[in-house]
Amino acid sequence: MFEAKFQSFADASSSHDSATRIAALREELARQNLDGFLVPRADAHQNEYVPKSAERLAWLTGFTGSAGFAVVLAQEAAIFVDGRYVIQVRQEIDGKILTPIDISETAPSKWLAEHAREGARIGYDPWVHTSGQIERFAKAVEGKKIALVPLDANPIDALWADRPSEPMGPVAIHPARYAGETAASKIKKLREALKDADATLMSDPHAICWAFNIRGADVAHTPIVLAFALLPKEGAPTLYLDDAKLDAKTRAALEKFLTLRAPAELIGDLTEAGKRGETVMFDAATAPVKLVETLRAAGGKPRVAEDPAALPKAIKNKAELAGAREAHIRDGAALTRFLAWFAEAAPKGALTEITAAEAAETFRRESGDLRDISFPTISAFGEHAAIPHYRVTEKSNLKIGKGVYLIDSGAQYIDGTTDVTRTVVVGRASKQLKDHFTRVLKGHIAIARAVFPKGVTGAQLDAFARRYLWEAGLDFDHGVGHGVGSYLSVHEGPQRISKMGATPLQRGMILSNEPGYYRAGEYGIRLENLIIVEKREIAGAEREMHGFESITLAPFDLNCVEPKLMNAEEIAWLNAYHAHVRKTLSPLVDAKTRKWLREATQAI
């Protein structure tokens, strides 16, 4: 009945091979007179989702998370992960070969400075590190005279016998009715941001896709084209793209406003720009140090700064916002059908984490508009729900019984990207679960109801979501919210609601609102809606004020709510939200789901 077409549940970890592979890497390093090697989980664009050919960290160590970093020395090796993966990494790696380290406690650069011998030569691939990353390492190890050595070829690639080929996904023009602005208009904005620079080197595929109104299929779950672009102050931009990705119609459309060149020609073009003494801007977050140093070595002046496309891409126009709202109505209907089905099927005891994930994807596919899921579905029961970024595999798959089930899932539609998390209970909710769930819900509502002056950052709002957990001596280790793209990445910057969210929130930005709580070994709770920053009119206000519009549509599990812990304003918000969900989605679902929806959204 149900199947998954956009995700696999195979166990991708290869920890059983890590000892042999790390030993082989050490032999190759010794041959090159190197004492160590830096292994980020990254491609040449610093993407979150990378092509299979760039999964070097997973191949070497067995760790399959979306963020990580390894340092391999002659006698020891360490792998660094953030709070999302501290449990997962220990399950996937060989602890006899690799030492797992929480990156928030010890940075890779600090560990290298403490563990590498004085005068050591540490190799790195300059295509998968940014200038800032290498500068941090250089500063950390300068006291021990450790040399960081850029290599012409990544040594892992030579050892990886069955390494997948580079992706060749087809490029498509993103329709104007969804883009809401022409490529010419966007290019004009970017040129204005150049100021006294001669050009900007675009290295973030999301920015390139946004600027040129194209989409691709080079990586899973995010419709991007892996490419670079050079945008001069005057003249046509150059897009460095493999010709195999273009059909005749798309090529003709692109050649109306830009020049197409092979990726291999980028180094030569930057060298020529350097010889002319040009100043070229590079994105600090994504530009490979290889490109920055190529320009510098040729006599050019690299200027490493924030990508000028980052902010305008984050501020959605009217067409993009309208598309997002429509996508969320469609997605809400699919998710509500899933929740109604789950409420009936789960108590029978025949479901597993995988069958539930397959069902959620199937309900979305049945809309007829699904292009992909926006990330691998987190389908987690019981203790697995306490792992924030848990990924179910055939090996880890749990049968769903009485207890807590968490599903974090999303979709890619041509008019918008969705991301939603709901936590439900199978059977009766304990008093403790209700307490924890309601505290998370109160935090979610606090963000949803927040009103704040123009200029406020996500860091200033982060504590709103944590207050009620803090009052009970509880907390969670991830941010409250991330930015979301428009039929692009489900994780978009520079906006975010977190302790590190330094970008002022502006009208038109889309973010997630997802506080949580995780009780290791027992259960996890996360409640997530997407929200749009909007202008908020307040009588007598002396400053321009902002608030949020919640656009995700799906019921929260009232079986887990303790109304006695909520105040009148919070109850009013929840009842109004559920009434909106019920009114909007009822015409879009079948009679059986509609009956369940009425009960699931009743006023408390």
From TrEMBL:
Molecular function via GO: aminopeptidase activity
Q: Which InterPro entries match?
A: Creatin/AminoP/Spt16_N (IPR029149), Creatinase/aminopeptidase-like (IPR036005), Creatinase_N (IPR000587), Pept_M24 (IPR000994), Pept_M24B (IPR033740), Peptidase_M24_C (IPR032416), X-Pro_aminopeptidase_P (IPR050422)
- Residue limits of the Peptidase M24 domain? 324-534
Source organism per UniProt: Methylocystis iwaonis
Cited SUPFAM superfamilies: Creatinase/aminopeptidase, Creatinase/prolidase N-terminal domain
Is Metal-binding given among the entry's keywords? yes
What are the residue boundaries of the Creatinase N-terminal domain, all occurrences included? Answer: 21-152
State the superkingdom. Bacteria
Keywords for this protein: Aminopeptidase, Hydrolase, Metal-binding, Protease
Occurrences of domain Peptidase M24 C-terminal (ranges): 545-604
Protein name (database record): Aminopeptidase
Family membership noted in the UniProt record: Belongs to the peptidase M24B family.
